[in-house]
Amino acid sequence: MDHFEIKHGVLHAEDVPLPAIAEAVGTPVYVYARATLTRHARVFREALGGLPRFHIAFSVKSNPNLAVLSVLKREGYGVDVTSEGELLRALAAGIAGDDLVFSGVGKTTRELGLALDAGLGQFNLESEEEGIELAQIAAARGRRAVCALRVNPDVDAGTHAKISTGKAENKFGVAYDRAAAIYARLAALDGLEMRGLAVHIGSQITSLEPSRAAFVKMGALMRTLRGAGFPVTHMDLGGGLGVPYRLGEVLPGPAEYGAMVAEVTRDWDATILFEPGRVITGNAGVLLTRVVRVKPGVTAPFVVVDAAMNDLIRPAMYGAWHDFAAVRPDGRRMTANIVGPVCETGDTFAMGRDIDAVQAGDLAVFRTAGAYGATMASTYNSRALVPEVMVDGDRWAVVAERIDPATILAAERVPDWLA
Ligand code: LLP
To answer: For residue range 273-330, what is the model confidence (pLDDT) as tens digits?
Structure first.
């Protein structure tokens, strides 16, 4: 459920009519509904009610906006970070220490040191090599880094190939068959406190079965390690739960996911960590855009909008579907291709789609744009970096300013020897 609804003929975010935001901030602009964020955070937490001990670390990469992090912090969420920049954001939002998990295959020496100094709660080690380096960095500081070993369970998440992370050939984690031996070697290092295992098999997963299969394998590995004398107290099950991108699409939601986890982990006696991203933020945001013009096409007209692949890259990158809706729908429909202004054929949001009829100057939204939207934006074609707005009831604020081409240009230099 979200809070983007038609009231008196106009699409609103909570109690704010979207034209008011377009008028004041311009388009394109991402608009987030605080009520949806809060609701999703609570629904996900309640769905885990069957677990004795758990901790939720919101996956910052899905939407790293500081205001979004602040909302989730108030909901008692920790965060999962994957870079120095995300760590900086988490700390700026006041999330610290035990509430931070650090994932990622390429944590640099600098990042490992910074995270240690920030009192990071758990490093999810992606290789033995990383563990050895972290042990040295921690030992040099007279510290022990709290760690989990990320394991690649070789399970196909059944999602888009570019966001599948748990197959043997993917770069993530250590091979399942080698995990116990690696865990034992890392546990012997002075600088590390190995406390558990981590797994994350992919994103936008629309069936519970791949996750169940992966979690069952992780449970077996946990028992092997405990049998060998290692006190495995924490199990990080990652994120990945998919969300409906199409009106009326029904997928397993947090409740079904929580019940599945409760069943699989029944006798684990461990603290279970979760790293949800999309399920919290996806349907909490829309990308608000204005139709520049409509031009004829061979099979269908082209609706050219002022948002482009640089603002929302998911359709170009993953062939992703985002519902398109007029801000002032009048009941008429049209079949159209929806495209942006960027000079690439890939800058196409939809082909031959049945949509609300729109014409030049109309406002419209791409829905389900709160996750992996603004954060993946670029300035390609020297376009502005898209701004973000958060709505809360009948008030709203710009939570990330538009960075215009002149500002970006001002950071560039022509060296003397070219002048
Ligand atoms: N934990 C780890 C270690 C991850 O790599 C990810 C996402 C998550 C948690 C959160 O997954 P979620 O709950 O959001 O599915 N840009 C792509 C998605 C990339 C996901 C990367 N990792 C997209 O737009 O679909």
So the answer is: 999 999 999 999 999 999 999 999 999 999 999 999 999 999 999 999 999 999 999 9
Quick one: three-class SS letters along 323-361? Answer: CEEECCCCCCEEEEEEECCCCCCCCEEEEEEEEECCCCC
User: Which residues are catalytically annotated?
Assistant: 343
Q: Is the C-beta atom of 173 inside 6 A of ligand 1?
A: no
| Domain locations along the chain | 4-32+282-410, 34-281
- Domain 34-281 class, CATH top level: alpha beta
Q: Is residue 368 in contact with ligand 1, taking CB distance under 6 Å?
A: no
Q: Is pTM, for the whole model, over 0.90?
A: yes
| Alpha carbons 384 and 381: distance in angstroms, whole number | 9
> What homologous superfamily does CATH list for 4-32+282-410?
Lyase, Ornithine Decarboxylase; Chain A, domain 1 (2.40.37.10)
Distance from Cα 202 to the centre of ligand 1, integer Å: 7
How many whole angstroms from 162 Cα to the centroid of ligand 1?
A: 11
Rg (CA), the chain: 23
Mutate to test the pocket of ligand 1, among 59, 149, 170, 318 (most ligand atoms within 8 A of CB): 59
Atom of ligand 1 nearest to the CA of 278: 14
The verdict on the CB of residue 40 being under 6 Å from ligand 1 is: no
For residue range 30-40, what is the model confidence (pLDDT) as tens digits?
A: 999 999 999 99
User: Which parts of 26-93 are beta strand (E)?
Assistant: 29-33, 54-59, 78-81
